[in-house]
């Protein structure tokens, strides 16, 4: 009888050790939904790159929600499936059944994300995109523009003569032309 108890105890310890060893090799998929040009998104990306180098079991999938319609729709599905209460914003990070909205700093939000990843690797966690993503893959970040590069764009500007606020439009339009590599011709109409 005593031999049977010891054998059962040893078997349970062995099962626990094998299960723990298998869980420690678990891969984790992290989903980052961001917006190109967002300051908080720009802070999180380098942190995630370093995190992925430190944890080879981590796969980071990025989605751009401001300029990519499909990624925005996918983000809405993630929010719904994971019951994320409003307000919704970017960056939003999903790991397993957990999520983090926003990004403050590496020492605060970064540590929170790192803990989710570490726990997912150590104990295993479900893929946050399971049941949401079928055959979709992360898309490259691209600004979608109604104007092709190197095209001419004509903008009608309705202003008042000698209006200081109206004159502030010029630098904005110049910047847009540079950002999207288009020539902007303006036709002024004064009222």
Word description of this protein:
With 191 residues, this protein is α/β, with parallel strands linked by helices. It folds into two domains: 122 residues, 3-Layer(aba) Sandwich (Glutaredoxin); 39 residues, no CATH class. Helices cover 45% and strands 20% of the residues. It is built from six helices and six strands, in the order αβαβαββαβααβ. Strands 2-1-3-4 form a four-stranded mixed sheet, with helices on both faces. A two-stranded parallel ribbon has the order 5-6. A hairpin with a 2-residue loop joins strand 3 and strand 4. The chain is elongated and about 65 Å long. The N terminus is likely disordered.
Query: Looking at CATH, which topology of the largest domain would you report?
Result: Glutaredoxin
Mean pLDDT: 77
Derived from helix and strand composition plus strand pairing, the structural class reads alpha/beta
Order of helices and strands: HEHEHEEHEHHE
Q: CATH homologous superfamily name of the largest domain?
A: Glutaredoxin
Question: How many distinct domains?
Answer: 2
- Helical residue percent band: 40-55%
User: Regions with pLDDT < 50 over 5+ consecutive residues?
Assistant: 3-23, 139-148
Global geometry? elongated
Q: What percent of residues are in strands? A: 15-25%
**CATH C-level category of the largest domain:** Alpha Beta
> What is the correct CATH architecture of the largest domain?
3-Layer(aba) Sandwich
Radius of gyration: 25 Å
Number of strands: 6
What kind of sheet is the major sheet? Answer: 4 strands, mixed
Distance between the termini: 101 Å
Quickly count the helices: 6
State the strand order across the main sheet. Answer: 2-1-3-4
